[in-house]
Amino acid sequence: MSQRLTIALDAMGGDNAPEIVIDGAVRARERFPNVQFLLFGDQARIDPLLVPHAKLREVVTIRHTEEYVSSEEKPSVALRQGRQSSMQLAINAVKEGEAAGVVSAGNTGALMAMSKITLKMLPGIARPAIAALLPTRLGESVMLDLGANVECDADNLVQFGMLGAAYARTVLGRERPTVGLLNVGAEEIKGGEHVQQAAALFRGATLPFDFHGFVEGDDLGAGTVDVFVADGFTGNVALKAVEGTVSLYTEYLRQSFRSSILSRLAYILAKPGFNKMRARIDPRRYNGATFLGLNGIVVKSHGGTDGFGFANAIGVAVDMVAN
Description:
The protein is an alpha/beta fold. Helix content is 47%, strand content 18%. The protein is built from twelve helices and eleven strands. It has helices spanning 19-31, 43-50, 54-57, 75-81, 86-95, 108-119, 154-171, 193-204, 219-222, 232-257, 261-281, 307-322; strands at residues 5-10, 35-41, 60-64, 101-104, 129-136, 139-144, 178-182, 210-215, 227-229, 289-292, 297-300. An eleven-stranded mixed sheet has the order 3-2-1-4-11-10-5-6-9-7-8, sandwiched between helices. β7 (178-182), α8 (193-204) and β8 form a beta-alpha-beta unit. α4 (75-81) packs across α6. The model has no long low-confidence stretch (mean pLDDT 91).
């Protein structure tokens, strides 16, 4: 991006904060030299981490607060008692126009609740949805909701489809995206009542995307559609299953190549190819889920990520602003 923009960071959110937040900002600074950061958190803990990074220090403003939202805190409690927390103050910066977007690796439920109350919803959207990009055989697809709304009705699913299609159109450049409803089967008679009703609404409306129909779990890897729509329970389970499968097969490969001298030699020969594959499916590369439907840009980083992953979450926020 050519113009300078400011991203607010919840410096105390995540399993390894504030260290991974600073590391992520250092990495993001190299990729986005025109970005500056508003860091919200404990200055006594943040300042020493910035000492080795003079270039980053030049574009960082610290807003001190010793309060933060823990990973175990209930969203209702965070709303009542976390008004001066690093998470809430970072969200406030977006509302007040000080920052173009906010990134946090903190408590997902609290981040969603605080963002919805503070930033409000876009007109016509009842609930925000968590959306992220998935690697597929054909490139990348959008999937939502990934856990914000465990229970959804048909109208919610249709709204998610509209949000996901807009995301695919602007971020992925898909002029007329295809949208599919994640279901237990591709046949029209399959699925629960809310999924059936949503499909009927999709088919009966004139929308700026193509409704593919029902899709199944194996369509995720195939990239059958540009946008996969599901309720938050189904979407979160599917996402975690994909991530777990990637980790499982990575470990299988590692064990196989350690099993004998010949397999170790084979690994040396195949290492360049496996490095490319590892980079392609590395979950950290896809870290950074967007809360779509809010009147502002909020990106949720995985709580257990490292600096590389957090930098990619910052990149998602910058891309959202650019698009």
